[in-house]
Amino acid sequence: MRPQFFFVPLVIVWAVPCGQKIMTAGEENQPVDYVIIVTGGELLQGAFPDGHTFFITRTLHPLGLQCIGSVCVDDRKAAIERALQFATERASLVIVTGGLGPTDNDITREILSSYSGIPLREDDTLLEQMARRFHTSPDQLRSNLRRQTRVPIQGTYLANPHGTAVGLIFESKRAVLVALPGPSRELEPMVQEQLIPYLSRHFGTHTPGCSLTLRFVGIGQSQVDQTLHDHVPLPENLTLLSQFQGGRVDFTFSLPGDTPENRRRLEQLKGTILEHLGDYVYADSTLSLESSILRQLAANECGITLAEVGSGGRLTAALLGDVQCDAPGTDGRVIARAYVASCFEELQNQLAPLPRPWNPGATAVEKTKLLAEAAAARTQSRWVLAIGEIQRDEMGQRYVDVVSQLRDGPVDHQRVWLRGSGSDSGSHLTTQLLDYLRHRLRQHAGTTQND
Fold this sequence. Notes:
Alpha-Beta Plaits, globular, 3 domains, Maf protein, alpha/beta, 7-stranded mixed β-sheet, Molybdenum Cofactor Biosythetic Enzyme, Chain A, 14 helices, 5-stranded mixed β-sheet, 18 strands
């Protein structure tokens, strides 16, 4: 079957207060047209939504870059090449997402090199960094990891402090081809911190001006909107953009010029918003929710042990993923131990012997508390968090029992409800578990300060 791809024109919608002017780069310079190519067979199968197009377009539009289309293709050579042919006939800039990792189906690097005619070479600096990351020497580095240090000889690369795959820029005669990593927590800061300055130098686009990003969890986008409308006066000439995914909401507030006065106005705005919504804000930067929690654990010198059943190891994977990517402010030792099982009995076997006999008639909450106690007894970490089996209430709604315990401290229990289905349900559950842990850490920090 011949590979297929789809061209979807984009309409950019700006959410700004009525009557306020949006400053765009096109008022001074001719906009630069670009096309986005999002790779990944899982997107075409409906397993995951495409969030990259929204983020890239809303980030680059104020800089004078005009997206004329987005193409979603399978991660196969023929499909990507056809998309590149289509895009380079229409735009001077093509942004490709995904396919830069260490697996066999990560082929974007080689395809862009072949299509542009620009060879790849190993970068000595990247090779040394990769070897240090995996605690080995360059000559002992696995070939699949070493491949990620290959960059175009004509162009440059974009640093990635949040992962192993750097971004790539091929400066060919036909167009500038940009390759970005697939994970959002790597792609988004790379665009904001690395790609935007490059585009400004190469295409003469505008700088982003002065901006503030507040990251919310535990509250819906509409609730934030309503609070801003009712309680927060917004400065003139402000551009307000919002993005939500997996139970997390980002609001970005931008002013057209990066001046001391505009920075002061944004700081005042931030203070007002925190007065009304501070409990829901976990970061005022590109810091992820996972990294924010790891920082809290490290700051309080709190190692944590995790015991998961109903969440399928999602919390462990989320936190360990940021540890492996050198989450800022941590040393990678905050995760003391993790136990993941498919049922209570399997987790019981991992944690045996239990501190007291297992009661066959115990409720799900009692079982979760006992397993949390057993996990605490097996480790030296100050915090233990246990997640029980998926249960249903009298209305048929699914939930998991979550138990947290500070060593020699009180036990806390909370129900966390499951929403949706498939990967969306898993993403929301992970976010809720992280938010629960965030609140518990803040409560402990507040109690410690009061003492």
